[in-house]
Amino acid sequence: MSKDLLARKPLFAPHGVVATSQPLAASAGLAVLRRGGNAIDAAVATAIALTVLQPGSNDLGSDLFALVWDGSRLHGLNASGRSPALLTRDLVLDREPALASAALGGSQATATQAVPARGWLPVTVPGAPAGWRDLHERFGSLPFADLFTDAIAYAEHGYPVSPTVAHHWGRAAEVVHADLIGPEFVEWARVFMPGGRAPRAGERFRNPDVARSLRSISGTGAASFYRGELAEAMVAHAERTGGLLRADDLVNHESTWVDPISVRYRGHDVWELPPNGQGIAALIALGILDGLPASPSLHQQLEAIKLGFADAHAYVADPAFHTHPAELLDPAYLAGRRMLIGEHAAEYPTGDPLRGGTVYLCTADGDGRMVSLIQSNYMGFGSHVVVPGTGFSLQNRGAGFVLDPVHPNVVAPGKRPFHTIIPGFLTRDGAVVGPFGVMGGHMQPQGHLQVVLSTVDDLLDPQAALDRPRWYWHTGLEVRVEPGLAGAVDDLRRRGHDVTVVGTPGAFGYGQAIWRTDAGYVAGSEPRADGVAAGF
């Protein structure tokens, strides 16, 4: 990685900040702050704009998770959707003979991806529109419809596509969509491949259909998405083209306000949302490392995150179907796991890594409110199913289920799948430090751990913490590092790690962070992507 890529300086701002992966979306959130909106208004406006400006990573058909600091305490929102009532393990095995054969043979496939990544089978109810509404109803100050202004304008009149977005959009069109056959996929190409290809960096893209969908959501408080015209369009398309989504699935959707979970690390509290997300993997790893007598080595960090993933992939599921694994954060349990870390790399049972396709944002206002929010349709444009006339793609989060009938995350009707997307938050002695996140599927808990260590152990500001070269544990003994960590490669290899130096920035996630200071805020934005931290 070139030094020029990591040349950003932190943003210092006295009144408010928005940090996210697309500059125009950050501007939309900042405009809300300057109009008198609070951090929650700004977060919702930014999230809505991102569905238009970064559609491969999120869309109206996405899920959403958020942590909200209201000025004195932290709140959690799980706005992820559930599987259709018609989705059963038997139905998946019936439609996918190859998976059925693997399941009968006891293959490891039964413990990993249960359904294909594209098409109707992995489609779960989108939770993002309800999440926007629920965040606004509880904490917002401006009228809900005002938060859609910039997103609708960009959808209707167009915008120049940013470089990183264009790169991933092109790969989705050329590599993924080219192999998809069926009536459910036709509308995706019409909407997202104008002129027969994906837009290139700097080219103007318009999506008037999604502008109409956004107007409908804004004017009805998201009701049209779950029981009105948009819901009817989704169900009609599903019934015509083999989908499982039905009216009751949408009508019955609701977000859940939850209590965030945390561990202590070097006098700080690191906060995540409880399952069905994988944030507990980061907390397990940090809890393990907290018991070490000194700042952890890179080898120890890798071993701790592997232990975190082993537990997350074994136990994380919809809490309505499985007891929340609070015992995984018990100090005695973590001490036992810590004892497993030796001088050499080890393998721990775990599932296969899951791919990304996500946006993350964080906001802060002049009254001390702060938001950590993540939104995703998964794996780049999700299912690649676009409902005609709506302009948005549906997520494929059902690909997070497994087929193992005794696993807590086994595919079932009306169930939330294992989720990769996780917002993070940091406090110290009950006082706020701030929101942070690193998107990128399997990379996310690893990115959270690295940002926390850079902040707490090395006292780096948010931008410096995000600039720092990253490592990524893939699976087994396989580790990938950015060129800036090349000096550590020989030691890791001596310890048994299978290390590759990778110069592709996107392989190591994209993050944002905002810390509270005596003078206001200091913020950073991912140098490996198009994003920005904007403040006033």
Characterization of this structure:
The protein is of the alpha+beta class. The chain has 18 helices and 19 strands. The strands form four sheets. Strands 1-18-17-13-12-9-8 form a seven-stranded antiparallel beta sheet. A seven-stranded antiparallel beta sheet has the order 7-4-3-11-10-2-19, with helices on one face. It has a three-stranded mixed beta sheet with strand order 14-15-16. Strand 8 (261-265) and strand 9 (268-272) form a beta hairpin. Helix 3 (89-95) crosses helix 4 and helix 13 (279-290) crosses helix 15 (331-338). The protein is globular and about 60 Å long. 57% of the residues are buried.
What's the total helix number? Answer: 18
Alpha-carbon Rg, integer? 22 Å
Query: How much beta, percentage-wise?
Result: 15-25%
Task: Give the termini distance in whole angstroms.
Answer: 31 Å
- Secondary-structure-based class equals alpha+beta
